[in-house]
Amino acid sequence: MDEHTRSGRGLAEPLDLLVTGVTALTGEPGAAPILDARIGIRAGRLVSIEPAAGEPPAARKTLHRPGRLAIPGLVNIHTHANLSMVRGVAEDLGFAPAYTPGIPQGHMVRPDEAYAIARLGALEAMLFGSTLINDTFVHADVVTPAMAELGLRVWSCGRIHDVDFSGVSTGRWEHCDAIGERTLDEALALAERYEGKSDLRIGVQLAAHAPDTCSTPFLRRIRDASERTGLRVTTHLSQSKVELARIRARDGLSPPELLDEVGLLNDRLLAAHCIHVSDADIARIGRAGITVAHIAKGNATGATIAPTQALRAAGARLSLGTDNMHADMVEVMRWALAVGRIQQGAVTDAWQPETVFEMATLGGARAMGLADEIGSLVPGKRADLVLLDLRRPHLTPARNPLGTLVHTGQGRDVETVIVDGAVVVEDGCPTQVDAEAIRRDAEDAIAALWARAAGG
């Protein structure tokens, strides 16, 4: 029995925070909703979660929130906060922003602009109920602490690549050792600064951008760095036909075959997309036990769907990310449920709201190596939880709270966000930052970027 539940201490000391009156979904497999739940928090961890009975325990602060739904904090395992800079435009171009000419590119973004725009993306994610984001883009040394200041957990890394991105969108693919050395060294320096040193508020995964933007020798260097440091690796995999063609021409392999050959295809890999995969690729991915970051809405917007059913059947683990342009994990759950059913051609017991809810919570925590700390509401775990307002017309009635959340909920229904026992969003507003100032600063930075992109 740990210190949070040891007899005597839990009864003698008042709670730091007590949440009452809520319907709670713990996120534990097979667990039923807890009606009129009390959630006790002390020293940043969950002490109790149980139906109300008798007098409530003493607490320094109580949030009585009847009509709200309490869920574990959502874990967004693949996002690019800075790419709000192409919101409403890149979705309709048919390809990822980094590969698309005529719009702002990552190499164009100055550190001060990255700071402003990343805070906007992190704010959006937190307001929509994400308590952890796994973010990659540029100027990670600047944006990582800037995003964490908002109150959520931030795993971050600059994109690691040795391609010269200034030519990619125009079809010029040149790999440069100096670029690879710089991006990998910057990632390792970020990890040295934060990994294991911030009480799980900031972390690093090595963000190998993609097989086509990393040369084969450089991918081996990333593998060596991962093995040496113990850091997990996150990447984009089989996200486009261009990637497949380039890897086939360069290496005579499919992207999953290449990552397997260089030693990166393993159970510590988090791979976004996995759309364009053959049956042999799916079997290989499943045998390796990688985690697939399913980008359900973003992929469908681009007219593609990852073969989630086949990947899961083969042994891959599934989690969810928002990727580009928006940060609503509730909406992503709904898209994941719908596109999975389209693939199956039926509504089945194996693909239900609890399936995608697990992908957005405990499945995401597993992908980050944090399942013992976050991802479900269990005594002893970190007190990361979200309250959504079920009293709204589109959530009434909520006879099946989870089904109602997944089918009709929105990130905008989030009322309260708690991270490590601290309330970081209250009544839909951040408690530690000025939301309007963040929005205004990001809007100015994005306008400057678009002006430069238009000027060539």
Give the low-pLDDT segments: 1-11
Q: What is the 3D form?
A: globular
Rg of Cα set: 22 Å
Q: In whole angstroms, how far apart are the ends? A: 63 Å
- In terms of structural class, how would the helical and strand content be classed? alpha/beta
Any idea what the CATH superfamily of the largest domain is called?
Metal-dependent hydrolases
Strand content: 15-25%
CATH topology of the largest domain: TIM Barrel
- Count every beta strand, where a strand is a DSSP E run of 2 or more residues: 18
Class of the largest domain, according to the CATH hierarchy?
Alpha Beta
Major β-sheet profile: 9 strands, mixed
Total number of domains: 2
Percent range for helical residues? 25-40%
Overall pLDDT metric: 94
Walk me through this protein's architecture.
By secondary structure, the chain is α/β, with parallel strands linked by helices. The protein has two domains: 9-72 and 381-429, Urease, subunit C, domain 1 (Roll); 74-367, Alpha-Beta Barrel (TIM Barrel), CATH 3.20.20. It contains 16 helices and 18 strands. Strands 1, 2, 3, 4, 5, 15, 16, 17 and 18 form a nine-stranded mixed beta sheet that branches. A hairpin with a 2-residue loop joins strand 2 and strand 3. Helix 2 (111-127) packs parallel to helix 3 (140-148) and helix 8 packs parallel to helix 9. The chain is globular and about 70 Å long. The termini are far apart.
